[in-house]
Amino acid sequence: MGFPMPQSNLPQNDVKPRIYVYDVPRIFTSAQFALAAQPYHNPGCMHRENDRHNVSQGLANAYQAQTYIMERIMNSPHYTTDAGDADYFLIPLWNQCLTESGAHIQPWAAFLRTYILHTWPYWNATGGKNHLLILPDDQGGCDLRNDMPIWANVTYIHHFGLNVPKELEKDHMSPLGCNTPGKDVVIPPMLGNRIGSTWREIQANMNKFGPCPRDTFFFFAGAVGIKGSPEYSGGVREHVYSLYNTTPGYKIIDFRTDQKPNIEGYAADYMTSVFCLAPSGLGWGIRTVISIFYGCIPVVIQDNVSMPYQEYLPWDNFSVRLADNDIANMDAKLKAIPSERIQQLQANIQCVWKKLFWSSVIGQLRDETALDEDAFDVLMLVLRTRLYGQVHNAFRLRADQLCVRKKPAVYNTRPQLCRLPCAPGLPRDGEEQQNDQPNGNGTCHALAK
């Protein structure tokens, strides 16, 4: 038995939520895979391919949440084919497949909504309040900004938590944000094979030669800015770079001008740093969860942006949050954090990372098991609590629960997590490669060598 949920008046033995997936014309879903080989088609559409042995392999792409989550739902106890039994209705709008970049999705979305309205009665029954849209693009729900009144009641499941100002929440027409806390769900991006296999390579060396000290105080590597995009990261990257690029103990790499590290060097920098900058980009930022995966304390500087599962996870217990206005004094603020507090943040990171990665979707990355809550389990939990009216702080984990909270036994339908295949360029000699999906008896298919 796992640690009880805070204020756990929720039923413990029912598989909730139950999710019905609309059966829409194939042009919106599976027919898109037939177009994937076309040169104009967005490669981010594909979440799976067959290898030379005709074994299905999952592909790790940060923009593939739509197809992966839909597939995971339909292979879980949460899926129902009885619409009358459903708590939520998933609209399969695969904007990564339908447009070249995933953006400018409004015409497709409007057509799909009209089709649903004329085919099923469930939208009109609630005004769309129990409907889900997965929007993994940089801007998340902002892709539908121009049509917000139409989608006002729908729950966005997206990576970009730029919040609608409270004074504008009622009209849903704010150009300043597209996430409504308590209605929408901010989820972590999907990271997979390269990050997992790289960690295992570096960890193997640490096990052989001893752990590497975290002797870099602050680390960031990435594009500091994009020409012609003054809104890129809200100017945070450029401001940090201009003030701290030559500060002792700081390692800041600008991909535009400095030599870009290879993935092993990139990961090693995270694994040997105390603090790592976690800014946004053109929309959501990926470095928050990368930092956590590699054990570096993320320094989140994203004003008015909700973090993944913020209503459930106590982010102040495994990250440092600063405002844009704090950048000028960032060095002093970070150095004022007591060493005991730093150690506690680092210890909490070693527990919470599992809840921010999609292990039951992508495959095992480190030492997680099927009993650990992963990002999919937390998504289902957040949606479940909404059914019973528990939102925000009402069921947030405490810091002392991060390492002991397990998912309810009723959800333990995958007895084994499968190891990811070796990442390209990082072969593990003598180690058997395995498929990322279990077979019927819960074991993994070994790939022929």
Topology:
Layout: E1 19-21, H1 31-34, E2 48-50, E3 56-58, H2 65-74, E4 88-91, H3 95-98, H4 106-119, H5 122-126, E5 131-135, H6 148-151, E6 155-158, E7 185-186, H7 193-209, E8 216-222, H8 236-244, E9 250-254, H9 263-271, E10 273-278, H10 287-293, E11 297-300, E12 320-321, H11 330-335, H12 339-352, H13 359-362, H14 375-387, E13 434-438, E14 444-446
Parallel strand pairs: 1-4, 4-5, 5-6, 6-7, 8-9, 8-10, 10-11, 11-12
Antiparallel strand pairs: 2-3, 13-14
Description:
The protein is of the alpha/beta class and 449 residues long. The chain contains 14 helices and 14 strands. Strands 1-4-5-6-7 form a 5-stranded parallel beta sheet, with helices on one face. The chain has a 5-stranded parallel beta sheet with strand order 9-8-10-11-12. Strands 2-3 form a two-stranded antiparallel sheet. Helix 7 packs across helix 9. The radius of gyration is 22 Å and the shape is globular.
Feature tags:
single chain, 449 residues, alpha/beta, 5-stranded parallel beta sheet, 14 helices, globular, disordered N terminus, disordered C terminus
**SS elements, strand count:** 14
Query: Helical amount among residues, as a percent range?
Result: 25-40%
What is the number of helical segments per DSSP (H or I, 4+ residues)?
14
- Compressed to H and E, one letter per element, the order equals EHEEHEHHHEHEEHEHEHEHEEHHHHEE
